[in-house]
């Protein structure tokens, strides 16, 4: 089976690595263009390009999948199956319909829940107890295709976007390999998403406005927001002088006397305790990223006298 792989970030590398490690014939990889990153805005290759190049897999970075040039490239590659994971662009019909065994997608949710761009982050932010991986046969809808396999993954209270991403990526690679074996020999059949009990939901990309912490929300909701956005793009608030303060980790603490939501009630114990919800709830900020600085422990920020009890955040 000649496999064309399509993917871009680290999540996709886990799937590509699983295919390579299982001996599948990955004849080419298609990924997005190099993008500027870091303070110097240096062009940086996608993670899939780096991995594929290091394993001798030809890499293509077309600007569009909808022109004659890509149609000709697809014909030259002539894949029997296209494996897709976090590619970042919608595949047109001529690409989906080309391979004999179809386009098989690794999606980080239990479809039909959390279709779209940010399923991992949304599941944490929404306070879900579990999420999972779906291996799906792609159609022209947005994550609407029939499902071959699903696996449920528990979301721990200690999980953030980074840790859950890595668990789901590893599971996705394992399940892709499992699915391809059944697809090739005809023993695995896909079922329509309409056969599942869950209602379809959409996990749209995280907006900048959604990253702002509302301290009138409950401690649990704030903790979930912080975890869902860490290590990137990070939940954010403002210091009394207007400077941005991004929060890397924060936990729910015991209630206390009523204060204004957003008021720093304590800086003892190396954490910044902040009133939230009805003013009696508490959240403890443990790690943070001040504007213009590097990531640090809250204790170091406190020692630098950058925040004090009585300060109002937000």
Which helices and strands, and how do they pair?
Layout: E1 2-7, H1 10-21, E2 25-30, E3 35-37, E4 42-44, H2 47-54, E5 59-60, H3 68-77, E6 81-85, H4 93-96, E7 103-107, H5 119-125, E8 130-137, E9 147-154, H6 161-185, H7 219-228, E10 235-238, E11 244-253, E12 264-266, E13 272-276, E14 281-290, E15 296-297, H8 298-303
Parallel strand pairs: 1-2, 1-6, 2-5, 6-7
Antiparallel strand pairs: 3-4, 7-8, 8-9, 10-11, 11-14, 12-13, 13-14, 14-15
How does this model look, in words?
The longest helix is centred in the middle third of the chain and has 25 residues, at 161-185. The chain has helices at residues 10-21, 47-54, 68-77, 93-96, 119-125, 161-185, 219-228, 298-303, and strands at residues 2-7, 25-30, 35-37, 42-44, 59-60, 81-85, 103-107, 130-137, 147-154, 235-238, 244-253, 264-266, 272-276, 281-290, 296-297. The model has no long low-confidence stretch (mean pLDDT 96). It starts with a strand and ends in an 11-residue tail after the last helix. It has 314 residues and is α/β, with parallel strands linked by helices. A hairpin with a 5-residue loop joins strand 12 and strand 13 (272-276). It contains eight helices and 15 strands. Helix 1 runs parallel beside helix 6. It folds into two domains: 2-195, Rossmann fold, CATH 3.40.50.170; 209-303, Roll (Methionyl-tRNA Fmet Formyltransferase, Chain A, domain 2), CATH 3.10.25. The strands form three sheets. A seven-stranded mixed beta sheet has the order 5-2-1-6-7-8-9. Strands 10, 11, 12, 13, 14 and 15 form a six-stranded antiparallel beta sheet that branches. Strands 3-4 form a two-stranded antiparallel sheet. The radius of gyration is 22 Å and the shape is elongated.
């Amino acid at each position: 089976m000649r496999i064309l792989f399509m993917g871009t970030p680290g999540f996709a590398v886990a799937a590509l690595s699983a295919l390579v490690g299982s001996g599948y014939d990955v004849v080419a990889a298609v990924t997005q263009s190099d993008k500027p990153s870091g303070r110097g805005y240096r062009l940086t290759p996608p993670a899939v390009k780096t991995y594929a190049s290091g394993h001798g897999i030809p890499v293509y970075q077309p600007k569009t999948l909808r022109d004659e040039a890509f149609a000709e490239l697809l014909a030259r590659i002539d894949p029997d199956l296209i494996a897709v994971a976090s590619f970042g662009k919608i595949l047109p019909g001529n690409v989906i319909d080309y391979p004999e065994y179809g386009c098989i997608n690794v999606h980080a949710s239990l479809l039909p829940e959390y279709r779209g761009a940010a399923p991992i982050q949304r599941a944490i932010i929404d306070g879900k107890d579990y999420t999972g991986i779906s291996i799906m046969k792609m159609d022209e809808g947005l994550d609407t295709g029939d499902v071959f396999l699903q696996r449920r993954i528990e979301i721990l209270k200690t999980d953030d976007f980074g840790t859950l991403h890595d668990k789901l990526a590893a599971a996705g690679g394992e399940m892709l390999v499992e699915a391809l074996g059944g697809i090739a020999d005809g023993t695995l059949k896909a079922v329509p998403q309409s056969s599942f009990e869950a209602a379809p939901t959409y996990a749209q990309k995280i907006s900048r406005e959604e990253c702002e912490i509302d301290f009138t929300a409950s401690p649990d909701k704030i903790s979930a927001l912080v975890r869902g956005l860490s290590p990137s793009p990070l939940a954010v608030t403002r210091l009394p002088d207007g400077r941005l303060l991004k929060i890397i980790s924060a936990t729910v603490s015991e209630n206390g006397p009523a204060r204004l939501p957003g008021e720093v009630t304590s800086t003892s114990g190396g954490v910044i305790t902040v009133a939230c919800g009805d003013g009696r709830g508490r959240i403890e900020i443990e790690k943070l990223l001040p504007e213009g600085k590097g990531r640090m422990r809250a204790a170091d920020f406190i020692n630098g006298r950058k925040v004090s009890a009585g300060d109002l955040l937000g």
